[in-house]
Amino acid sequence: MRKKHPQGDEQIQKLWEYSNAFKDDVDDMNFQPKDLKEITARTFIIHGDSDPLIPVEVAETMHNWIPDASLWLIPGGGHVPVFGEELPEFLRRTSQFFEERNRT
């Protein structure tokens, strides 16, 4: 994170505090499973299984409740797991997802 945040540790700490505060925000859109089952859009959930901010159970719940959703759990993936070495696989899987969905 230090490479991406030139203002140093103080900036990084503020970003973590800001992100962590989402859990206490009553105005945040907290979807419940009953809300998720109403989604009709094609849905491809991509989640790192080592995300330090959002537990993998959140992605699994979304996958279980959104009708016909697809889920890709990236082994060892963090909060934004599709950058770096996962980018080629991300491009392949998302292209495949849209190709398959456009055939139906």
- The residue-averaged pLDDT reads 84
> Looking across the biggest beta sheet, what order are the strands in?
1-2
Q: How large is the share of residues in beta strands?
A: 5-15%
Taken in chain order, the helices and strands follow as: HHEHEH
Overview of this protein structure:
The longest helix is centred in the last third of the chain and has 17 residues, at 87-103. This protein is mainly alpha-helical. It has four helices and two strands; from the N terminus they run ααβαβα. The N and C termini lie far apart (42 Å).
Describe the structure using short key phrases:
104 residues, mainly alpha, two-stranded parallel ribbon
Briefly summarize what is shown.
It is built from 4 helices and 2 strands, in the order H-H-E-H-E-H. The chain has helices at 9-20, 33-36, 56-65, 87-103, and strands at 44-48, 70-74.
Q: Topology of this structure?
A:
Layout: H1 9-20, H2 33-36, E1 44-48, H3 56-65, E2 70-74, H4 87-103
Parallel strand pairs: 1-2
